[in-house]
């Protein structure tokens, strides 16, 4: 709240310094317009800083709902603190505003690089996230009181009119910044360079306002100090932009353990691949000079490891192929082509439909030598039809087709999607999603779902199982040991990850509860037969005994009475 000006007390020779009319190099009307223009620019930059923190925190830590709540609540609180602290600077508003903008440009511009560095080299970024949210919020909060003082010194008007003008420019600037971040800065420059560029714009706008428009308010010492501070900030930001590419390369190497062979931003997510260049690397037998076994990361989360993926995909696909025909198969997700590879090993399969959101992943699965070797060029098989669309939207569109023509049902539906704990995936593990999938099943069809880690996040796993049951399907939950410590891309990187489970250890006998498992749910209209099909091909990492042990082992950890997750009430986050 901005206090209205008070009359000068008797005996004072003139008005207080913060209300003295400014001596400007331009007419007052033009000066006021310039101040409002700087308000517009600063508001746009401030919102970019907020969105950049939310986006980067979601990428590094996961759970976008929690990260957005933390960043925005801390920043709004800090803005209130900054507004109170700015009251002490009103007597020298021009100098104070110049110092605030120089600090904001440096802190906001460098925040993305600093957060990424904390994540890459120290293994966590939560503390840095809160610290930057506080610092940026305090500096943004200090802007409005100082700008209010400056605009009143250009030309006095009633407080209500001044506030209306100031906030109008502020809100319009926020709109432009909010749209510029996803549609211009992020796709054109990326998070690191985009934040640094925003800081540079912020520093220039604040410097021009103070060092030119209000230069007569400054002492020679203050003028040189602000000029030097702004020059230093711009130099640091420019250096950061020059070093952004090698910094990102070094940080990726620290995160992924080796130099990434492929690193692309597809428009949906960041896709990084390491290893997999040797003749045997794709099968987990990395040769000298091959860079090791192939590993595929999506938004920093390990999705495929050539050393263990065959166990995961065999456990996902082959139990669902048992218990009935498997002529028509639907794969939701699975753009890497590895689940399709296992499906095509059955000679009776006539058609496979793959619904994958990211065309960049599909392109790599077809063209990358390491990944296409690993999936045995499955996406190029004439029986495979690929659809580039969101799985939820595709199921909904197919289910709503009119004209009395019901789409041909599928014998098997394989849901090979990211873990449900990731906020963007929650709708793909909802009651509505499974209801749509169930409508696409044949009368004796089976649905299999990758349901997350059943031991480390048991409540999440059993919520998936309860949600599948809520649409009228009978379920058989099961698990398989061997999941890498980093397969689930949860909060930060563990400093002391749990050891991997030996592939020979039965699923029913985890080592002191420290085993890492993949969790699955098999479902059908009637309780599905669990096991392997009579025409199952020879499997390298899965046997009937291990499957049965996984079914018995996971049943002992059942959490009864969990509610289903819905679009309106998702229950996987937190």
List the helices and strands and how they pair.
Elements: H1 28-61, H2 64-86, H3 93-122, H4 126-154, H5 159-213, H6 220-256, E1 262-265, E2 270-274, E3 295-298, E4 301-305, H7 309-321, E5 328-333, H8 338-343, E6 351-356, H9 359-367, H10 369-374, E7 384-388, H11 391-399, E8 410-416, H12 431-439, E9 441-450, H13 458-469, E10 474-481, E11 517-524, H14 544-555
Helix pairs in contact: 1-2, 1-3, 1-4, 1-5, 2-4, 3-4, 3-5, 3-6, 5-6, 11-12
What does this structure look like?
- There is one protein chain.
- The chain is of the alpha/beta class.
- The protein folds into 2 domains: 28-254, Up-down Bundle (Growth Hormone, Chain: A); 308-488 and 516-556, 3-Layer(aba) Sandwich (Rossmann fold), CATH 3.40.50.
- The protein has helices spanning 28-61, 64-86, 93-122, 126-154, 159-213, 220-256, 309-321, 338-343, 359-367, 369-374, 391-399, 431-439, 458-469, 544-555, and strands spanning 262-265, 270-274, 295-298, 301-305, 328-333, 351-356, 384-388, 410-416, 441-450, 474-481, 517-524.
- The protein is elongated.
- Its main location: membrane.
- One of its GO terms (molecular function) is spermidine synthase activity.
């Amino acid at each position: 709240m901005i206090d209205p000006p008070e009359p000068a007390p008797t005996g004072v020779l003139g008005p207080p310094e913060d209300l003295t009319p400014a001596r400007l190099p331009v007419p007052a009307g033009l000066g006021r317009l310039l101040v409002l223009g700087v308000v517009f620019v600063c508001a746009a930059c401030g919102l970019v800083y907020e969105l950049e923190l939310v986006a980067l925190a979601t990428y590094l830590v996961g759970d976008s709902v929690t990260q957005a709540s933390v960043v925005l609540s801390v920043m709004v609180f800090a803005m209130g603190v900054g507004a109170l602290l700015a009251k002490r600077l009103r007597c020298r508003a021009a100098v104070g505003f110049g110092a605030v903008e120089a600090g904001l440009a440096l802190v906001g511009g460098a925040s993305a690089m600093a957060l990424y560095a904390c994540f890459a080299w120290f293994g966590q970024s939560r503390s840095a996230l809160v610290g930057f949210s506080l610092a940026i919020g305090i500096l943004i909060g200090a802007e409005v009181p100082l700008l209010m003082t400056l605009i009143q010194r250009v030309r006095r008007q009633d407080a209500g009119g001044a506030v209306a003008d100031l906030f109008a420019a502020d809100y319009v600037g926020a709109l432009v910044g909010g749209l510029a971040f996803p549609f211009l800065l992020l796709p054109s420059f990326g998070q690191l360079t985009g934040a640094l560029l925003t800081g540079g714009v912020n520093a220039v706008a604040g410097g021009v306002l103070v060092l030119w428009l209000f230069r007569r308010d400054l002492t020679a010492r203050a003028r040189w100090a602000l000029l030097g501070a702004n020059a230093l900030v711009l130099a640091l930001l420019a250096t950061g932009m020059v070093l952004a590419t090698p910094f990102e390369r070094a940080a990726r190497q620290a995160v992924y353990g080796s130099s990434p062979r492929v690193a692309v931003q597809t428009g949906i997510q960041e896709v990084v691949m390491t290893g997999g260049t040797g003749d045997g690397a794709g099968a987990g037998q990395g040769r000298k000079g091959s860079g090791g076994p192939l590993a595929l990361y999506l938004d920093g989360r390990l999705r495929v490891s050539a050393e263990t993926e065959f166990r995961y995909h065999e456990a996902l696909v082959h139990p669902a192929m048992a218990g009935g025909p498997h002529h028509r198969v639907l794969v939701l997700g699975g753009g890497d082509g590895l689940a399709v590879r296992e499906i095509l090993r059955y000679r009776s399969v006539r058609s496979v439909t793959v619904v994958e959101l990211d065309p960049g992943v599909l392109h790599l699965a077809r063209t990358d030598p390491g990944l296409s070797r690993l999936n045995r060029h499955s996406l190029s098989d004439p029986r495979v039809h690929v659809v580039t669309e969101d799985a939820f939207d595709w199921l909904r569109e197919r289910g709503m087709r009119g004209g009395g023509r019901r789409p041909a049902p599928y014998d098997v539906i394989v849901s090979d999607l990211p873990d449900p704990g990731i906020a963007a995936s929650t709708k793909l593990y909802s009651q509505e999603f499974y209801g749509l999938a169930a409508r696409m099943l044949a009368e004796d069809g089976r649905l299999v779902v990758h349901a997350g880690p059943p031991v480390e996040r048991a409540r999440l796993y059993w919520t998936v199982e309860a949600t599948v049951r809520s649409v009228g399907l009978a379920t058989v939950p099961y698990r398989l040991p061997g999941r890498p410590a980093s397969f689930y891309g949860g909060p930060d990187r563990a400093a002391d990850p749990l050891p991997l489970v030996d592939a020979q250890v039965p699923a029913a006998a985890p080592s002191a509860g420290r085993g890492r498992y993949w969790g699955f749910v098999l479902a059908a209209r009637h309780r599905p037969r669990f096991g392997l099909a009579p025409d199952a091909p020879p499997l390298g990492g899965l046997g009937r005994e291990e499957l049965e042990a996984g079914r018995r082992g996971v049943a002992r950890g059942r959490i009864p009475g969990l509610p289903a997750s819905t679009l309106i009430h998702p229950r996987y986050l937190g």
